[in-house]
From TrEMBL:
Organism of this sequence: Metabacillus rhizosphaerae
Name of the protein this chain belongs to: Glycerophosphodiester phosphodiesterase
Membrane-crossing residue ranges in chain numbering: none
Coiled coil regions in record: none
Superkingdom in the source lineage: Bacteria
Boundaries of every GP-PDE domain copy: 2-239
InterPro entries, alphabetized: GP_PDE_dom, PLC-like_Pdiesterase_TIM-brl
Length: 243
C-alpha cells in the first residue's frame, strides 16, 4: 500500500509547516506528514523550510540569527491571507507532542543542515523523538548525508532516508552503505526500475513533491512505498479509488 505524506502538511491549501497545515493533512487522512527543521540563535528547533524567515513570514533575517521569542511572534500565513493572525512557526517539540496523539501517524523530519551547519542538530532532534516515544514513527531525512550517518550512530532504531535530486547509480546500494532504509528522490529520479529494485533490497522509496494526479496514479499503480504531496486530500482520494 502506497503511503501518502502531506508535504509541509497540506501546503497546497494551508500555510506550510504550520500546525494548521499539519492538522489539515491529518484530516485529509494522510498517513503522515513531512516537515523541515532549522535552529534558532538560542538553540530551539523550529519547523520552517528556508534558512531565512523572509519568504513565509512577515519578518526578515536568518533563523540562526533570531531567538525563538522573536520567531514566535512572526505571522507565518505566507500567501494564505485568510489565516493571517492564526499561523505561527511551531517548535519541533510542539509538533511531536501533537503527533504522538495521532494513532499510527508517521512524521518525516527533514534536517535542513545542507547550507548551515547547525551544531548538534542531530542529537537535539533525536532527543525530542525519544522524549515523545516516536522512534518507531519517525523518519529522518536530509540532503546532508553525513548528517544521516551521524543520526544512525546516535540511534540505530530511527529510520533514515536519503534525499537527492538527480539519478544515482544503484541508489539502494548507496543507501545500504550508509545504513539508510529509505530513498527520497525528486520524482524525476524515481524511475520504475529504481522503485522495484530498491524495494527488492528492502529499501523504501518515497519521491517528492508529487502534485500531478497522473504521476500520483502511476506511483500508486507501481506500489511505490509512498510519496510526498502538497495535496494529500487528492492523493488519498486516488488511492481509495484504487482499493
Amino acid at each position: 500500500m502506497t503511503l501518502i505524506f502531506g508535504h509541509r502538511g497540506a501546503a497546497g491549501g494551508y500555510p506550510e509547516n504550520t500546525m494548521l497545515s499539519f492538522k489539515a493533512a491529518k484530516a485529509a487522512k494522510a498517513d503522515g506528514i513531512e516537515l523541515d527543521v532549522q535552529m534558532t540563535k538560542d538553540g530551539e528547533l523550529v519547523v520552517i523550510h528556508d534558512e531565512t524567515v523572509d519568504r513565509t513570514t512577515n519578518g526578515t533575517g536568518f533563523v540562526k540569527e533570531l531567538t525563538f521569542e522573536e520567531i514566535s511572534r512572526l505571522d507565518a500565513s505566507y500567501k494564505f491571507t485568510q489565516y493571517k493572525g492564526g499561523s505561527f512557526i511551531p517548535t519541533l517539540n510542539e509538533v511531536l507532542e501533537w503527533a504522538k496523539q495521532q494513532r499510527e501517524f508517521i512524521v518525516n523530519i527533514e534536517l535542513k543542515n545542507g547550507i548551515i551547519d547547525y551544531p548538534k542538530i542531530e542529537e537535539k532532534t533525536i532527543k525530542l523523538i525519544y522524549k515523545h516515544s516516536l522512534q518507531k514513527r519517525v523518519i529522518i531525512s536530509s540532503f546532508n548525508h553525513y548528517s544521516l550517518v551521524t543520526c544512525k550512530e546516535i540511534s540505530s532504531e530511527i529510520e533514515t532516508a536519503i534525499l537527492y535530486m538527480e539519478g544515482l547509480y544503484m541508489p539502494w546500494k548507496y543507501a545500504e552503505s550508509i545504513g539508510a532504509k529509505g530513498l527520497h528522490p525528486h520524482y524525476h529520479a524515481a524511475k520504475g526500475e529504481v522503485i522495484s529494485q530498491s524495494k527488492s533490497h528492502g529499501i523504501s522509496v518515497r519521491p517528492f513533491t508529487i502534485n500531478d494526479t497522473q504521476l500520483m496514479q502511476r506511483l500508486i499503480n507501481e506500489k511505490c512505498t509512498g510519496f510526498f504531496t502538497d495535496f494529500p486530500e487528492t492523493a488519498v482520494e486516488l488511492k481509495l479509488k484504487g482499493d
